[in-house]
Write a structure and sequence with these properties.
- By secondary structure, this protein is an alpha/beta fold.
- Strand 13 and strand 14 form a beta hairpin.
- Helix 13 packs across helix 14.
């Protein structure tokens, strides 16, 4: 590989357990190994991350998978072409509610602990009862409009016939402030990443209803995001950055290294809370208590196994279907062409080959077909099931979209189909 064109970099992150890939690359010398001098900057919100990367105050950042797509499309008041060639992790989110709301849901259906699919149905009944008695709608928070957290939250609600746009109030709150807002009664529940669900449970402020893993097994979460202009101006720097993060992700995935990861994340410059709480979130077998039962979730955070770092274009297409489904995007575009400008598995593939790591020869895969582990091109993969049994084929993304109630859609569906079938 060539020497990086730019050695001194500033990368942003949000205090979440999945920022560990950047933290480990810094603390364990992976950046330095590839000729990079990286300053990590702890940021207050995803909007800060987006804006600072767009104006060049940050060279790149730990980002929600939806941010490069939304920013390229001009959603969220900022329009700037972005790219990602590296997925940071799979899974990691959960929906947490206040203790009071949890008790009300248990009163409706005591079986929500044994079958988390019933949680949305219990919430639906509670919402109907509140409407009848004239109570104000419940308020739920997510970390950013164009996030897996928002899409998981609304997907979960809609599975029971709840209309998130009308039946509840939705707010945006940075993840590190979720627990405080729940404690103060400003919100009734939220969807966020770790360690902020475990923290609410440990402090007896809230209860976990369902994890993101249970909604969609091994779903995409964070990515490395840079502007397209930056990637084109500094291709060898970008390549070195991906090599560094690939090595860090592989290092984190080794069980013998998890204690060191937890110790590093507990430092104030990263997350700054107890190792015990971070350890709860980072455990291979994530456990939480629900109505006296211990719920065990395998692989709550996956950083390298199952091709976790590969930027699947099919994941990006699913995200775009959600942007349309929930009325966030009002333009007719060719979805596949748009995604292929943003997600760059070709760059990832070159880096993986340099490191003798597995890399698929395909950029799209069908989601929802596998209830258990399976194999893709001789690589072990995790289950990819949706909790409602749906199957997502990126080649038929609009058929998938129209399989749901799409009354929030803001484009002409026939026009969208015509452009995407041409």
């Amino acid at each position: 590989m060539n020497k990086p064109e730019k050695n001194n970099l500033k990368l942003g992150f949000i205090p979440l357990t999945d920022c560990c890939v950047l933290a480990i690359a810094s603390e364990k010398g992976m950046f330095e190994k590839y000729g990079l001098n990286v300053e990590l900057s702890k940021e207050a919100s995803w909007a800060n991350i987006r804006d600072k990367v767009c104006v060049g105050a940050l060279d790149g950042a730990h980002m929600l998978a939806g941010i490069p797509i939304a920013t390229t499309l001009g959603l969220g008041f900022t329009k700037k072409p972005m790219v990602t060639a590296f997925s940071i992790n799979l899974n990691g989110n959960a929906i947490t509610v206040s203790n009071g709301l949890y008790e009300r849901l248990l009163a409706i259906d005591e079986n929500i602990a044994r079958d988390r699919k019933r949680t949305a149905m219990a919430l639906k009944q509670l919402i109907e009862e509140d409407k009848y008695s004239g109570k104000a709608p419940l308020t739920f928070a997510m970390v950013y409009p164009y996030s897996s957290h928002n899409y998981e939250l609304q997907y979960w609600m809609a599975s029971a016939g709840i209309d998130p746009a009308h039946d509840v109030n939705l707010r945006v709150i940075p993840p590190q402030y979720m627990v405080r807002n729940l404690q103060e009664g400003q919100i009734d529940g939220y969807c966020a990443g770790g360690p902020w669900n475990s923290y609410a449970v440990k402090e007896n402020i809230g209860k976990i209803l369902i994890t993101g893993y249970e909604i969609w097994n091994y779903s995409p979460e964070k990515v490395l995001g840079v502007t397209r202009e930056w990637a084109e101006n500094y291709p060898d720097t970008h390549f070195a950055l991906i090599m560094s993060l690939l090595e860090a992700a592989a290092w984190i995935e080794q069980p013998k290294n998890r204690v060191a990861v937890i110790e590093i994340l507990a430092k104030e410059k990263y997350i700054g809370i107890s190792e015990e709480v971070i350890g709860m979130s980072m455990a291979d077998n994530y456990q939480y208590e629900s109505n006296g039962q211990i719920i065990s979730i395998p692989d709550h955070n996956v950083f390298h196994r199952y091709l976790a770092n590969y930027p699947w274009r099919s994941h990006a297409i699913w995200i775009m279907t959600q942007m349309y489904r929930w009325g966030q995007f009002d333009q007719v575009v060719n979805i596949r062409e748009t995604v292929e400008e943003i997600y760059r598995p070709d760059i990832y593939r070159q880096a993986a080959q340099q490191l003798n790591m597995n890399s698929p020869t395909i950029d799209y895969k069908t989601e929802g077909q596998h209830q258990d582990a399976w194999s893709l091109q001789n690589v072990e993969m995790g289950a990819d099931a949706f909790f409602d049994g749906q199957v997502f084929d990126s080649e038929k993304s609009l058929d998938y979209l129209t399989g749901f109630d799409v009354h929030n859609l803001k484009v002409d569906l026939e026009e969208l189909k015509k452009l995407n079938q041409s």
